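Weekly modeling sync, notes
Attendees: AB, CL, MP (scribe)

Item 1: holo prediction request
CL wants a bound-state model with S-adenosylmethionine before deciding which constructs to order. AB pointed out that an apo prediction alone won't tell us much about the pocket. Agreed to run with the ligand included and paste results into these notes for async review.

Input as submitted:
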Amino acid sequence: MNDQLSADAILACLLPICLFLISFAWLGMPTLSLRNILDIIKGRTHSSGNYPYFSREHAVASYDLYYEMASAELASMRKSYSKLGRAHKRIGYELGYPRKLDKLQATIEANDKVVRGIRRRARETIPSIKRTRMPENGDILRVRETLKHFVRDWSSESVSERTAIFQPILDALQTEEPTKRGGMSVLVPGAGLCRLAWEISRLGFSTTAVEISPFMTLAFRFLCSPEYTNRIDQHVLHPYSYWFSHQQKNENLFRDISFPDVVPNLASNLRLEEGDFLTHRSPSGGYDYVVTLFFIDTSMNVISTMEQIYSLLRPGGQWINLGPLLWPSGAQARVELSLEEVFDLIRMIGFKLEDGNDVPEVKRRKTVPSEYTADRYAMMKWIYQAEFWVATKPE
Ligand SMILES: C[S@@+](CC[C@H](N)C(=O)[O-])C[C@H]1O[C@@H](n2cnc3c(N)ncnc32)[C@H](O)[C@@H]1O
């Protein structure tokens, strides 16, 4: 009697699942892997990390889990689609929506090729993370942000984004005689994927990039390793495919972008320090320049950041800044200053803001409309009215 009951119960549970799967096939739902199906049934998603935020383990874990996390999001999208009634599902089918979701799956696989390269390179070069414990959570937002930085920094797609923000900085630095540059030192804190630092080193300056995020530094190791990156446009990404909003055409959404536009064979005058700029030490005598691009507003305490910039410069050295004032959200920042307060702070710390008519044009304060990892075909644009200034530490 009991056996009969449990057999009936199992049948009762299995029947809806079978009907669910048959209806998927019948209505033309895209191919689902067993993992996708389990994700749908369990309602599983992947979100924040379970390692210290700025640890390499957290970054490697996130790269390890990129494919799984992205596939779980796709499974949620398929699940939403599956909730349409039969008639609307048929319309969705005629619109090609199931095929669009399949296309997203293909782009996740393509992006994962780059991601696998990053984590393989990380394990080869950093023995302590050779065997990172397989985690349960990773940070897909950071992985995606880093992939977009390959586009911002190292693809021809983003030449105009880069030119708008790099050129004012490079112009200011080029006021230095080329013959003197080899003996001058430049620090670039919060260097991201280091294109600006690389451009500065190519002008002849001895350049140090400092970057705290292992998401970025591991990706940069992959980019700079000749075994992984040795020719122009070698790698392909689909950086925008995961966000279906603000798109005119699916071909824009899924377009591939190759990188690098130039192979960054590192010269000996460029050095990357993987760590916190707030604890960075200057070479004896101090830096000739500190260059901050989209950086100072990422700080939890901009007063400490500016004091540190001041202390790292030699007397007479200059701080060149270009960026917005997008303070960390959720009241994390100790202070969230307006631009006029930032200028007051610059003076209070002891800098002289280069702003008069006697200052060369290229070093004068200006507002620079700028974008940040923008999708140039999107129906939405986010333009920062970023501020450029040069401030001098008195002799
Ligand atoms: C908004 S991003 C800008 C990156 C790059 N400058 C660009 O414009 O593409 C800020 C960068 O600063 C890094 N960063 C934040 N605080 C830092 C710190 N204390 N030391 C070093 N890097 C830091 C972040 O990890 C991030 O890569």
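Recorded for review: Residues 1-49 have pLDDT under 50 and may be disordered.
Action items: CL to compare against the apo run; MP to circulate these notes.
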